[in-house]
Amino acid sequence: MNTTAADTAADATRAAVQKFFDLRIAGDTEGLTALFADEVDWLLAENPVVPWIRPRTTAADCAVQADDMAEHTVPEDAKVSIDTILVDGHDAVLMGHLAGTVRATGKSFEGPFALRLTVENGRITRHHLYENSLSVAAACTP
Fold first, then answer.
1. CA 108 to CA 73: how far, in whole Å?
2. Overall pTM > 0.70
3. β-strand 123-131 against 36-44: which pairing, if any?
């Protein structure tokens, strides 16, 4: 069986995506900082009523997004399920469902999401998250 450059890139992407989730679950901010590239193409629609959503570009800032979210939500209510992972070379798209509860309001949010990650040289260079921002904003509004 011949291994192509595309196969090698896809394998590296799959490994980085798995590492990303392992580090997120473990709450390993230092590991996430090392996994993100020095500069990241970060996209998460700005939402002024959601305290953990803001522009990010550096590895350290991207890595602490999970900490920022955990500070404002009830950790035991957080749920994420991944239904599909598609990998094509350096790109991965993950689709699933997320839910949680905002600590300050006690309100819940939920909905589908899609996450596009790009991995180059073993590091995440792109993180674009598309989610049910209306539900998240409603849960953050008193």
1. 9
2. yes
3. parallel
